[in-house]
Amino acid sequence: MIRNKTAVQDIAEVQFMQDVLTGLQASPKFMQAKYFYDQKGDFLFQKIMKLEEYYVTNAEMDILSKQSGAIADLITAENTAFDLIELGAGDATKSIHLLKELSTRKLEFSYLPIDISAGMISHLENHLPRTLPGLVVTGLNGDYFEMLQKGTALSSRRKVVLFMGANIGNMEVAEAEDFCSTLRASLSKGDILIIGFDLKKDPKQVLAAYNDAQGITAAFNLNLLSRINRELNADFELDAFEHYPFYDPESGACKSYLISLKSQEVRVGTEALFHFEAYEPIYMEISQKYSLQEIEKMAAATGFQFNQRFFDEHNYFVDAVWTVV
Question: Which pLDDT score, from 0 to 100, does residue 2 have?
Answer without folding.
Answer: 41
